[in-house]
Specification:
The chain has about 120 residues and is of the alpha+beta class. The chain has one domain. Helix content is about 25%, strand content about 30%. A 5-stranded antiparallel beta sheet has the order 1-2-3-4-5, with no helix packed on it. A hairpin with a 5-residue loop joins strand 2 and strand 3. The chain is globular. The termini are far apart.
């Protein structure tokens, strides 16, 4: 059984690419720690990299993978891809490993949650 996450997420996995969230890449909704936004993105599994290489090297590898991926699909370098998830223990890894983000702002009202796509 997993642990309670400081950074909630919902992943969509293609079994031809990855078997779970620990490695490979997948589509994911990454919720900010303060729950004031969520990013729909293509991101990378980070757990296997952290376990194999340690935190510092894992972040380098994630960033290198992002550069390689973005070069393959010819994405403009002018497109800002930085995200801010909060201070959760996985936040710097998810932030470093994001290929393509699209922010969705959440406005939470009592008993209702509205999504606004920008």
């Amino acid at each position: 059984m997993g642990n309670w996450s400081q950074l909630p997420w919902i992943g969509i996995f293609d079994p031809n690419v990855t078997k779970g969230a620990q490695s490979g890449y997948y589509i994911v909704y990454l919720f900010r720690e303060d729950m004031q936004g969520v990013y729909l993105s293509i991101n990378q599994g980070v757990t296997d990299l952290r376990n194999k290489y340690g935190d510092k090297k894992a972040i380098e590898i994630l960033r290198d993978n992002v550069k390689e991926f973005r070069n393959k699909i010819d994405v403009s370098n002018d497109l800002e891809i930085g995200i801010s998830l909060g201070k959760g223990n996985y936040a710097p890894f998810y932030e470093a490993g994001i290929f393509m983000p699209n922010i969705i702002l959440l406005k939470i009202y009592p008993l209702k949650m509205y999504l606004f796509l920008i």
